[in-house]
Amino acid sequence: MQAHNPEQGRSMTPQNSCAVCGQENAPDARFCAGCGASLKGAPQPEGGAGSTSGGLPPRSLGDILNATFSIYLSSSRAFVGFIGIALVPQIPATIAGLIQGPASLVLTALGVLLSAVAAGATVYAAAREALGQEWDIASAYTRAFERVISLVFAFLVYLLALIGAGVLSIVLVGIPLLFFILIVWSFHAEAIMIEGKRNLDSLSRSYELVKGSWWRVFGIFVVFLLLAAACFMAAAALVVAVSSIIAYSGVGFILIGAAVVVIMPIMAIGSAVLYLDLRVRKEGYTLDDLAAEVGR
Predict the structure, then answer these.
(1) Is 32 in the same domain as 155?
(2) Are residues 127 and 253 in the same domain?
(3) Domain presence at residue 147
(4) DSSP H or E segment with residue 24
(5) Same domain, 26 and 114
(6) Whether residue 71 sits in one domain with residue 180
(7) Local structure of residue 38 (DSSP, 8 states)
(8) What domain range includes position 71?
(9) CB–CB of 63/49 below 8 Å?
(10) d(Cα 95, Cα 140) in Å, to the nearest integer?
(11) Which pLDDT score, from 0 to 100, does residue 191 have?
């Protein structure tokens, strides 16, 4: 009988290396144990849904950035899908910038309200993508419109609170309050889309998750804002160059709108990844939990 060689058995084991950080993972792992990024080499079960067993690792800033771009750029389908979600509220907003009169105000308001729905659709799409499950623009918006009242109501309360704090900031009193509200209520869309919270409960849930981690969350959001600003400045430079060549006065506005559509998903997906990380750190959140909540 031929002796079994352990080394030979190990050499035949398929490798599942993370394309982001290089970590070697188990052959059936769907997510990297090092950085949490999606593993494309992992086997897919029938129906396209990824395996959801196992816990999510706590993520550092670098891990959150890696996971964000891993979800956004995981495939051309995902990239186009996230851009398509962001495009919907930009259509009325862009048209409003090109016309005058009451219609412009109506379209602007419509764009603002649709942005709240788009935020919910992006959260749902990002969660499905993180789980390795299929989704498209229509299914993401369908899920968001099922919870449109909560999304719009929480968004308007959040917006009005920020405007109120901004007015108070004129006399300096509102500056700390402005940043405090900006952070503690920033995960209301995630609470609505993933946990099924409604209206003001979503704001309370966001506050509960941020409590004790305000400075960390604030610092991570600042990094994402700086990253988005850098991308936007690069896009603005391109817009200036193109506008100097093309005489049409509206081309610059249209190109700026296109840049916003490409850049905004980075912030929305990053917020969803950070939300999941807060739940991992506070509640021992797992992929099974995420799959159960997203599937409701």
Answers:
(1) no
(2) yes
(3) yes
(4) strand 24-25
(5) no
(6) yes
(7) B
(8) 58-278
(9) no
(10) 24
(11) 96
The residues with which 24 forms a beta bridge, in sequence order, are: 17
Q: What does the alpha-carbon distance between residue 200 and residue 157 come to, in Å, rounded to a whole number? A: 8
**Residue with the two structure tokens 């993972």:** 25
Asked whether residue 80 falls in the same domain as residue 48, the answer is no
DSSP 153-194: HHHHHHHHHHHHHHHHGGGTTHHHHHHHHHHHTTTHHHHHHH
> For the segment 102-150, what is each residue's pLDDT rounded down to a tens digit?
888 888 888 889 999 999 999 999 999 998 889 999 999 999 999 999 9
Phi, then psi, of 34 in degrees rounded to 5: -85, -50
Name the more confident of 20 and 203: 203
Is 5 within the bounds of a domain? no
What distance separates the 2 farthest-apart alpha carbons in the chain? 89
Kindly state whether residues 85 and 42 are assigned to the same domain.
no
Mean pLDDT across the chain: 81
Please report which confidence band the pLDDT of residue 253 belongs to, taking 50, 70 and 90 as the band edges. low
17: three-class secondary structure by DSSP: strand
CB proximity list for 56: less than 8 A, separation 6 or greater:
31, 36, 276, 277, 280, 285, 286, 287, 290
- Give percent above pLDDT 70 in the chain: 77
Q: What are 178's two structure tokens?
A: 């402005």
Give Rg (Cα) of the chain: 21
- Say how far apart CA 50 and CA 56 lie, in whole Å: 14
Nearest partner of 41 among 73, 64, 74, 68, judged by Cα: 74
Give just the sign of the alpha carbon dihedral 95, 259, 214, 59. Answer: positive
Q: Where does the pLDDT of residue 15 fall: very low under 50, low under 70, confident under 90, or very high at 90 and above?
A: low
Total number of domains in the chain: 2
Mean pLDDT score, 207-231: 93
CA–CA dist 85, 269 (Å, integer): 12
> Is the model's pLDDT at 154 over the cut of 90?
yes
